[in-house]
Amino acid sequence: MSDGFRNPSLAVDSICLRNGGEEVLLIRRGRSPWKGKLAFPGGFVDYGEDPEIAALRELLEETGVEGRNPQLYAVKGSPDRDPRKHIVSIFYMIHVDGESEPEAGDDAAEAEWVNVNSISSEDIAGDHFDIIEQLRK
Protein backbone atom coordinates (compact mmCIF):
# COMPACT_ATOMS: atom_id res chain seq x y z
CA MET A 1 0.00 0.00 0.00
CA SER A 2 1.44 3.36 -0.98
CA ASP A 3 1.31 6.19 1.53
CA GLY A 4 2.21 8.81 -1.08
CA PHE A 5 5.74 9.30 0.24
CA ARG A 6 8.85 8.60 -1.84
CA ASN A 7 11.27 6.95 0.56
CA PRO A 8 14.74 5.54 -0.04
CA SER A 9 15.24 1.79 -0.10
CA LEU A 10 17.14 0.14 2.73
CA ALA A 11 20.10 -2.17 2.17
CA VAL A 12 22.68 -3.85 4.39
CA ASP A 13 26.33 -4.76 3.87
CA SER A 14 28.51 -7.17 5.86
CA ILE A 15 32.10 -6.41 6.86
CA CYS A 16 33.91 -9.62 7.82
CA LEU A 17 37.60 -9.58 8.74
CA ARG A 18 40.27 -12.18 9.50
CA ASN A 19 44.00 -12.29 10.24
CA GLY A 20 43.81 -9.30 12.57
CA GLY A 21 41.92 -7.21 10.02
CA GLU A 22 44.44 -7.84 7.24
CA GLU A 23 41.85 -9.61 5.07
CA VAL A 24 38.25 -8.76 4.29
CA LEU A 25 35.54 -10.97 2.78
CA LEU A 26 34.34 -9.49 -0.53
CA ILE A 27 32.22 -10.61 -3.46
CA ARG A 28 32.67 -9.83 -7.12
CA ARG A 29 29.35 -8.51 -8.41
CA GLY A 30 27.68 -10.65 -11.03
CA ARG A 31 25.10 -8.03 -12.02
CA SER A 32 24.85 -4.34 -12.85
CA PRO A 33 25.48 -1.89 -11.44
CA TRP A 34 29.20 -2.44 -10.93
CA LYS A 35 29.24 -5.86 -12.56
CA GLY A 36 32.69 -7.37 -12.06
CA LYS A 37 33.65 -5.01 -9.22
CA LEU A 38 34.43 -6.05 -5.66
CA ALA A 39 31.85 -5.23 -2.98
CA PHE A 40 30.88 -6.16 0.54
CA PRO A 41 28.30 -8.96 0.63
CA GLY A 42 24.90 -7.37 1.01
CA GLY A 43 21.52 -6.57 -0.40
CA PHE A 44 18.09 -5.20 0.28
CA VAL A 45 16.22 -5.58 3.56
CA ASP A 46 12.93 -7.43 2.99
CA TYR A 47 9.70 -5.87 4.22
CA GLY A 48 9.18 -6.91 7.85
CA GLU A 49 12.81 -8.02 8.25
CA ASP A 50 15.21 -6.71 10.90
CA PRO A 51 18.29 -5.20 9.20
CA GLU A 52 20.66 -7.25 11.38
CA ILE A 53 18.92 -10.46 10.26
CA ALA A 54 19.03 -9.22 6.64
CA ALA A 55 22.80 -8.70 6.88
CA LEU A 56 23.32 -12.26 8.16
CA ARG A 57 20.97 -13.65 5.48
CA GLU A 58 22.68 -11.77 2.63
CA LEU A 59 26.12 -12.82 3.88
CA LEU A 60 25.06 -16.48 3.85
CA GLU A 61 23.30 -16.22 0.46
CA GLU A 62 26.21 -14.51 -1.30
CA THR A 63 29.21 -16.25 0.32
CA GLY A 64 27.97 -19.40 2.06
CA VAL A 65 29.58 -18.07 5.26
CA GLU A 66 27.61 -17.97 8.50
CA GLY A 67 27.96 -14.81 10.55
CA ARG A 68 27.09 -13.83 14.08
CA ASN A 69 26.87 -10.80 16.35
CA PRO A 70 26.36 -7.97 13.82
CA GLN A 71 27.57 -4.60 15.13
CA LEU A 72 26.74 -1.27 13.49
CA TYR A 73 29.82 0.10 11.69
CA ALA A 74 28.64 2.82 9.28
CA VAL A 75 25.64 4.15 7.38
CA LYS A 76 25.92 5.42 3.80
CA GLY A 77 22.97 7.34 2.41
CA SER A 78 24.00 9.87 -0.21
CA PRO A 79 21.06 10.12 -2.64
CA ASP A 80 23.37 9.51 -5.62
CA ARG A 81 25.43 6.64 -4.15
CA ASP A 82 23.66 4.08 -6.38
CA PRO A 83 22.60 4.66 -10.00
CA ARG A 84 19.40 2.61 -9.59
CA LYS A 85 17.70 4.78 -6.96
CA HIS A 86 18.22 6.34 -3.55
CA ILE A 87 19.50 3.52 -1.35
CA VAL A 88 20.58 3.87 2.28
CA SER A 89 22.92 1.08 3.38
CA ILE A 90 23.74 0.00 6.91
CA PHE A 91 27.21 -1.55 7.18
CA TYR A 92 27.62 -4.13 9.95
CA MET A 93 30.82 -5.62 11.31
CA ILE A 94 30.01 -9.33 11.49
CA HIS A 95 31.99 -12.06 13.22
CA VAL A 96 32.75 -15.17 11.16
CA ASP A 97 34.98 -18.21 11.48
CA GLY A 98 38.30 -17.13 9.95
CA GLU A 99 38.70 -20.61 8.47
CA SER A 100 35.49 -20.21 6.46
CA GLU A 101 35.96 -20.87 2.74
CA PRO A 102 33.52 -18.62 0.89
CA GLU A 103 31.58 -19.87 -2.14
CA ALA A 104 29.79 -17.44 -4.43
CA GLY A 105 26.02 -17.62 -4.46
CA ASP A 106 22.95 -15.52 -5.31
CA ASP A 107 24.08 -12.55 -7.44
CA ALA A 108 27.79 -12.85 -6.54
CA ALA A 109 30.08 -14.09 -9.32
CA GLU A 110 32.90 -14.76 -6.81
CA ALA A 111 33.45 -14.61 -3.06
CA GLU A 112 36.93 -14.39 -1.58
CA TRP A 113 39.16 -13.16 1.22
CA VAL A 114 41.10 -10.13 -0.05
CA ASN A 115 44.05 -8.32 1.51
CA VAL A 116 42.72 -4.92 2.62
CA ASN A 117 45.86 -3.13 1.42
CA SER A 118 45.69 -4.61 -2.10
CA ILE A 119 42.34 -2.99 -2.98
CA SER A 120 42.28 0.12 -5.15
CA SER A 121 39.33 2.46 -5.67
CA GLU A 122 39.02 1.26 -9.30
CA ASP A 123 38.48 -2.35 -8.09
CA ILE A 124 35.52 -1.71 -5.84
CA ALA A 125 31.86 -0.84 -6.27
CA GLY A 126 30.42 2.58 -5.48
CA ASP A 127 31.25 4.07 -2.11
CA HIS A 128 32.45 0.78 -0.61
CA PHE A 129 36.03 2.05 -0.98
CA ASP A 130 35.24 4.60 1.77
CA ILE A 131 34.75 1.67 4.15
CA ILE A 132 37.98 0.00 2.95
CA GLU A 133 39.86 3.22 3.75
CA GLN A 134 38.33 3.30 7.24
CA LEU A 135 39.37 -0.32 7.82
CA ARG A 136 42.97 0.47 6.87
CA LYS A 137 43.32 2.95 9.75
Index terms:
137 residues; alpha+beta; Nucleoside Triphosphate Pyrophosphohydrolase; four-stranded mixed β-sheet; four-stranded antiparallel β-sheet; 8 strands; globular
Describe the fold and architecture.
The protein is of the alpha+beta class. The protein contains 2 helices and 8 strands, in the order βββββαβββα. A hairpin with a 4-residue loop joins β2 (17-18) and β3 (23-29). The relative contact order is 0.28.
Summed up:
The chain has 137 residues and is an alpha+beta fold. The protein contains two helices and eight strands; from the N terminus they run E-E-E-E-E-H-E-E-E-H. Strand 2 and strand 3 (23-29) form a beta hairpin.
| Beta strands, count | 8
Structural class designation: alpha+beta
Helix count, per DSSP? 2
Number of domains: 1
Strand content is 35-45%
Q: What is the average of the pLDDT values? A: 96
Assign an overall shape.
globular
Oligomer state of the chains in this structure: single chain
Could you state the CATH homologous superfamily?
Nucleoside Triphosphate Pyrophosphohydrolase
**CATH architecture verdict:** Alpha-Beta Complex
Task: Say what the CATH topology is.
Answer: Nucleoside Triphosphate Pyrophosphohydrolase
Unreliable stretches covering 5 or more consecutive residues: none
Listing every helix as H and every strand as E from the N terminus to the C terminus, the arrangement reads EEEEEHEEEH
Roughly how much helix do the residues carry, as a percent range? 10-25%
Write the layout of secondary structure elements.
Layout: E1 9-15, E2 17-18, E3 23-29, E4 38-39, E5 42-44, H1 51-63, E6 67-76, E7 87-96, E8 108-115, H2 128-136
Parallel strand pairs: 1-7
Antiparallel strand pairs: 1-5, 2-3, 3-4, 3-8, 6-7
